[in-house]
Amino acid sequence: MRAFLRLIAFLSPVLLALPATAQTYPNRVVKLVVPFGAGGPADVFARILAQHLTDETKQSFIVEDRPGAGSVIGTDYVAKSKPDGYTLLVMSNTQTTNESLIPNKPYALMRDFVAVAPINYSDLLMVVNPSVPAKTVQEFIDLAKKDPGKLNYASSGPGTPYHMAGELFKAMSHTDIVHVPHKASGDARNSVVSGTVQMMFDAVTTMTALAKGGQVRALATTGLKRSPLTPDLPTVAETVPGYEATIWLGVMAPKDTPKEVIDYLNAAVSKVVNREDVKAAWLKQGAIPMVQSPQEFDAYLRKDIDKWAEVVKVSGAKIQ
């Protein structure tokens, strides 16, 4: 009996320590790093998520924008952060595209990060400045073919969904349109509104209001089906069969972040995006909530890396 009690006494601190991380996390401010500019979908939804996570966990979640170099600057910052769950990355298919588009990055996504949870996805909106004499996708294609290399399209930087949507469009429509990268999506948006750049693919969640206000002309959405947000607007695929380009958002953490912290965060994020009020609000903006386990999100990321590697290869997209 004494031996048994001594064993229990020895093991008790160990047993109590096992769930300690999960029990005490988070006990200070958690930083959600957005490697994109302010005002874009990642920034907007990260702030919504941060507020709900703060309410849910009773601990502060804050957003820090670190844009630049097609998201590489902010992503690398998180990769080099302490793996304790207090510095997280809010990412998109920009990161999965960059795995093939920017092979010499200072990090590798699936080597230096661990999947936490997805957030949502949405279609993109193909828009032009009102001065462009094209009211349909076909008219825009005809215009581009008439003067190869004369029309430009804006993006928030190399490897972003907006960039790859443009490259995929060029490849599938057999047009020569010049890519004009910007530091942030807000800058790209302003260039199209001002007429400095003629066209852009942008998230429906951020561009629809400008289209409805007449500041840009919407030509189409980029999903395989028409968006419920703009049911009268055709898809690009109705003119260019098979075309599809969307934007999705998710959360990752530095490698070696404790599994119990990853599981805690996955449960917290999933609870937020599964809330009926959140789903209803996001659907009105054209965003569809996503819920997956860390393992499912990991598989999703690896599949997306393969998908965009093929698009990069077929389109011939390069960093400018």
What would you say this structure looks like, in words?
The protein folds into two domains: 27-121 and 248-315, D-Maltodextrin-Binding Protein, domain 2; 123-238, Periplasmic binding protein-like II (D-Maltodextrin-Binding Protein, domain 2, 3-Layer(aba) Sandwich). It is built from 13 helices and ten strands. The protein has helices at residues 2-17, 20-24, 41-57, 72-79, 93-101, 109-112, 137-146, 161-173, 185-194, 204-212, 259-273, 276-284, 294-315; strands spanning 30-34, 61-65, 87-92, 113-128, 152-155, 178-181, 199-203, 217-221, 246-254, 287-289. Strands 1, 2, 3, 4, 5, 6, 7, 8, 9 and 10 form a ten-stranded mixed beta sheet that branches. Helix 5 (93-101) packs across helix 13 and helix 8 (161-173) crosses helix 13 (294-315). It starts with a helix and ends in a 5-residue tail after the last helix. Mean pLDDT is 91; it is low at 7-20.
Q: Which radius of gyration do the C-alpha atoms yield?
A: 22 Å
Beta content: 15-25%
Helix content: 40-55%
Highest-level CATH class of the largest domain = Alpha Beta
Based on the structure given, which CATH architecture of the largest domain is correct? Answer: 3-Layer(aba) Sandwich
Determine the mean pLDDT. 91
Regions with little confidence, pLDDT below 50 for 5+ residues: 7-20
* Strands, total number: 10
CATH superfamily of the largest domain: Bordetella uptake gene, domain 1
Q: Biggest β-sheet: count, sense, barrel?
A: 10 strands, mixed
Shape designation:
globular
**SSE order, one letter for each helix or strand:** HHEHEHEHHEHEHEHEHEEHHEH
Number of helices: 13
How far apart lie the N and C ends?
Answer: 74 Å
CATH topology of the largest domain: D-Maltodextrin-Binding Protein, domain 2
What structural class results from the helix and strand content? alpha/beta
How many distinct domains?
2
